[in-house]
């Protein structure tokens, strides 16, 4: 299997899983990959892809800021991951970037900071996850500090090539080296939870259905030891 095909396979597996199951799988793996307070601009948004990282810094007095000029060189299918240090008094993303990202078939954008022009991303169904929205521009206020460098998103360090998944619950980050393990755990957790649901629908007590499927330790690093 080629690297490209392998990457696509990881993305498809991630898209078939929800962030809650992936969060539990990250816990079982001992990885803190849940991006705190990063949420979808529209709850219908869904995305998965590998990270292209962007780091901003405050623009110096009199320095011309450049916001978004990197996008022409980003690989289609990427999740653009922007670290603006959580600043909520200026944006890093607006309608021109949304239009371009949608046209170039990016998987989505994740911002530790805010964006504007929410109506267009909803209209185009282009997934944006951030700390919120406001209209004040970042032009002249922020400057590009690095591309394809480690960044921080909601307390999680994201490296270029890490796998991100977003849904109505928020965003999780899966380290590139642990993709197969975390996705495998999440697939197992999802199967177990589906068994519990089916048992409840058939009339079984919830506590019994959970006990039979070791529900309360599905996210535990000791799951295999406990479940046998």
Tell me about this structure:
- By secondary structure, this protein is an alpha/beta fold.
- It folds into two domains: 1-31 and 175-228, no CATH class; 32-174, Glucose Oxidase, domain 1 (3-Layer(bba) Sandwich), CATH 3.50.30.40.
- The protein has helices spanning 3-15, 19-29, 95-103, 118-124, 179-201, 206-212, 223-227, and strands spanning 39-40, 47-58, 79-83, 108-112, 128-130, 142-147, 151-153, 156-158, 163-167, 170-174.
- Strands 1, 2, 3, 4, 5, 6, 9 and 10 form an eight-stranded mixed β-sheet that branches.
- The two termini are 33 Å apart.
- The relative contact order is 0.22.
- The mean pLDDT is 94.
Please tell me the overall pLDDT.
Answer: 94
Following the backbone from N to C, one meets helices and strands in this order, namely HHEEEHEHEEEEEEHHH
> Approximately how much helix is present in the residues?
25-40%
Strand content: 15-25%
Strand runs, count: 10
Tags for this model:
single chain, 228 residues, alpha/beta, Glucose Oxidase, domain 1, 2 domains, 8-stranded mixed β-sheet, two-stranded antiparallel sheet, 7 helices, 10 strands, 33% helix, 21% strand, elongated
